[in-house]
Design a protein that fits this description.
heterodimer, A: 401 residues, alpha+beta, Butyryl-CoA Dehydrogenase, subunit A, domain 2, Butyryl-CoA Dehydrogenase, subunit A, domain 3, 3 domains, four-stranded mixed sheet, four-stranded antiparallel sheet, 13 helices, 46% helix, B: 368 residues, Butyryl-Coa Dehydrogenase, subunit A, domain 1, 2 domains
Chain lengths: 401, 368
């Protein structure tokens, strides 16, 4: 165990800090709701030029062209978190499509799409889930048939974040219905959201906001050249990106920051003249969550070290999504209990703004337990791939018609 | 930044794993547990001594290995994995630290080399971390001790005892001292040695530990218990997984049923972050990190809960056979129960973190 950084790393940290001080005025106040604001895109360009965003994407494709250095990446993330500065744009185009294109895209696809995506000029949405294909994603039925140089797509996608503001979609589409099993016969296609035949309907959730959409695809024509990877190999192509998504879902710095806010809330709030923090039952729940948040932070440091050494800790990696999303929801749950009646205020009420929108988190974080692979699917993965338990017996599937 | 065990620590764990696997077998543990008398497992202690464990925390100048809390935690995890029924917390952790930090030069020269060599064993009688129960305490008056300690550990086979008195100070008492009576206490975990002490004007040698060193001693013990919990809890998970692969019902391994899979997944998901938390806490004590105390208490409370959950679910995965004496899973279940409560259970331990937190954030509130 050595938690210190090398002199070179400390020097780098000082540079990042200096940058954040010098460019405090450039930090965008508003990042934009559906699409990145001008200020957000300017900030992103600055961060790429500085080597802080899109670090490992080659310069030829609009990235920073920095060598892989997990410790430097972590130093950047830590310093930006301390300064409460956003570390550039975070969206599915950058986190999922760009790595996929870098790995499997054609040269033309890389040149056309990576740079504008990184700059925030092109916004993507992900077309994976369908009403009939959630946990069993590979049973998706949105299909494409060949017609000349095009595919013609029909079907429906759901849980499509930012679809209403997106320029493009990357999607899993069934192109080979007669393939020997459901995993084969899927292709990874990219196409414009302005294509005729696309209808986007907002999907309002229990929070009251429409964080997601449904996307209806009717005779949507996509040139065959807009396939990523081999035809029928889309499942494999997408698996490389799902890996990236799972990595995104547990930020222990964020959980610890929320925990600090919750403790401050418990100290400030009182009933009958007694601070909530001085009530043993509340306090025990808070300390239990603080211990869990600290454990997840340490766990992340352990995984970071392993990644830096090029080692994989499969079981340790597989538990992160389950534990982190559960922890976040439990923190929000306690906050709701701490606030009591005062925390029931919602929407534009002053209380809600003052109290970190805990009620909204309480509902939104429940969705995070489900999204990106439900808690139950996570447990299957942990049991079968992490602990080596025998595979669950799957019912035989009828051959696709 | 290197958040991992060193190669030496990994090697230490692997080698000790082999040694304890062959010495602390289920048959051996059962033989120890079935004996009703005050028992000292001389053969296991000898095995530990051959490995150098008694000298882990004794400075090199006194013939020890001069290793760190984290190294000792690595050892404690292996001892927990194999429910080793030999003394550890007293002679290997508390005594070398208390004497090393608070003993006079003469005491150190006299005792530390013998501790390091394994020929001297010293037990521990200290109520404070778990709280003074029903007013039972040891009082010091002009260098002599009077009172009771209902939960003294590692007394069997010990020549001396480190005694904590109500005023927070520490003393060395001879096991054969006049006025000291020792009554062995059978606890749920027969792999641990516990005794009740009655002291009536017993002669003692003072150890001058600073208040911060007394806390460090407390935290070091919490870390060792956390490590033992991780070891026994992990072993319970492994047993459950092995059994779920081998046991067939309804024509297939029960481990292929999601209901059983999810029990195992939950155990793993809870225990795994505890490993990183334990390393961090142990390292915090070694490196003097400002949050070392908080981390040590959190590690103990977290792993007490996680291992208890694993102990319950592991028995459930085994079904009826899980509660039998013959299978022996109960030795791990009971080890977890003991380690979770000793020196303060999870709820009390979290309350201690809250007091640290309140003291740090709001000094005027202090330990509420």
């Amino acid at each position: 165990m050595d938690l210190s950084y090398t002199p070179e790393q400390e020097q780098f940290r000082a540079e990042v800090r200096q940058f954040l001080v010098e460019h405090k005025a450039d930090i965008p106040a508003h990042f934009g709701v559906n699409r990145p604001s001008d200020a957000a895109r300017a900030w992103q360009r600055l961060l790429i030029a500085q080597g802080y965003a899109a670090r490992n994407v080659p310069v030829a494709y609009g990235g920073a062209g920095q060598p892989h250095d997990i410790m430097r990446a972590q130093i950047i993330a830590d310093e930006f978190a301390v300064a409460r500065a956003p570390l550039g744009l975070v969206n599915q185009g950058i986190s999922m499509l760009v790595p996929t294109l870098l790995e499997l895209g054609t040269e033309a696809q890389k040149r056309d799409w990576i740079a504008p995506t990184l700059r925030g000029d092109v916004v993507w949405c992900q077309g994976y889930s369908e009403p009939g294909a959630g946990s069993d994603l590979a049973s998706l039925t949105t299909r494409a048939v060949e017609d000349g140089d095009d595919f013609v797509i029909n079907g429906q996608k759901i849980w499509t974040t930012t679809a209403h503001g997106a320029d493009m979609m990357f999607a899993l589409i069934r192109t080979e219905p007669d393939a020997p099993n459901k995993y084969l016969g899927i292709s990874y296609l990219i196409f414009s959201m302005k294509s005729p035949g696309i209808e986007v309907r907002p999907l309002r959730t229990m929070t009251g906001a429409a964080e997601f959409n449904e996307v209806f695809l009717t005779d949507v024509r996509v040139p065959k050249s807009q396939i990523v990877g081999e035809r029928g190999q889309g499942w494999k192509v997408s698996n490389s990106t799902l890996k990236h998504e799972r990595g995104m879902l547990g930020d222990p710095n964020a959980a610890l920051a929320r925990m600090r806010n919750l403790l401050a809330l418990m100290t400030a709030q009182s009933t009958d003249g007694v601070a909530i923090m001085d009530m043993p039952v509340f306090r025990d729940r808070a300390m239990r969550l603080q211990g869990r948040a600290l454990a997840m932070k340490c766990h992340a440091m352990r995984l970071l070290t392993a990644a830096d050494k090029g080692e994989d800790l499969p079981l340790a990696r597989m538990i992160v999504k389950l534990q982190a999303t559960e922890l976040n929801h439990e923190i929000a749950t306690l906050a709701v209990d701490v606030l009591g009646e005062a925390g029931l205020a919602y929407d534009d009420e002053a209380h809600m703004r003052a109290n970190e929108i805990w009620q909204k988190r309480y509902m939104f974080d429940l969705g995070m337990i489900i999204g990106g692979g439900t808690a139950q699917i996570q447990r299957n993965i942990i049991a079968e791939r992490g602990l080596g338990l025998p595979r669950e017996l799957k019912p035989a599937r009828p051959t696709a018609a | 930044m290197d958040f991992a065990l060193s190669d030496d620590q990994t090697l230490l764990a692997e080698q000790l794993e082999g040694v304890m696997g062959s010495l602390s077998t289920l048959t051996r543990v059962r033989r120890h547990a079935d004996a009703r008398a005050e028992m000292f497992a001389a053969d296991l202690w000898e095995g530990m001594t051959r490995f150098g464990i008694p000298g882990l925390l004794v400075p090199e100048a006194y013939g020890g290995l001069g290793l760190d809390i984290l190294d000792a935690a690595v050892v404690a995890e292996v001892l927990g994995r194999h429910v080793v029924p030999a003394p550890f917390l007293g002679p290997v952790v508390a005594a070398p630290l208390a004497i090393g930090w608070g003993g006079s030069g003469a005491i150190k020269s006299r005792l530390l080399p013998r501790l390091a060599g394994g020929e001297l064993r010293i037990g521990l009688a200290w109520s404070s971390p778990a709280g003074e129960r029903n007013g039972e305490a040891v009082i010091e008056r002009s260098g002599r001790l009077t009172g009771t300690c209902p939960f003294a550990i590692d007394i069997a086979g010990s020549e001396m005892i480190v005694v904590g008195s109500r005023d927070g100070r520490f003393h060395l008492v001879d096991r054969a001292a006049e006025g000291l009576s020792v009554t062995p206490v059978t606890t749920v975990d027969r792999t641990r040695s516990v005794a009740a002490l009655v002291l009536d004007d017993v002669a003692a040698e003072g150890l001058a530990l600073s208040p911060s060193d007394r806390l460090r001693l407390d935290y070091a013990l919490q870390v060792m218990l956390a490590a033992d919990l991780l070891g026994s809890g992990s072993r319970l998970l492994e047993s459950a997984v092995e059994y779920a692969k081998a046991r067939h019902q309804f024509g297939r391994p029960i481990g292929s049923f999601q209901a059983v899979q999810h029990l195992c997944a939950d155990m793993a998901a809870e225990l795994e972050p505890g490993r990183a938390l334990l390393w961090y806490a142990a390292h915090g004590l070694d490196a003097g990190l400002p949050d070392a105390g908080e981390s040590a208490l959190h590690a103990k409370a977290y792993l007490a809960d996680a291992a208890r959950m694993a102990s319950r679910k592991a028995v459930e995965v085994h079904g009826g056979i899980g509660i039998t004496d013959e299978l022996g899973l109960h030795y791990w279940f009971k080890r977890v129960t003991w380690s979770g409560q000793a020196f303060g259970g999870a709820i009390r331990t979290r309350e201690r973190v809250a007091c640290l937190h309140n003291a740090a954030v709001l000094p005027q509130r202090g330990a509420a």
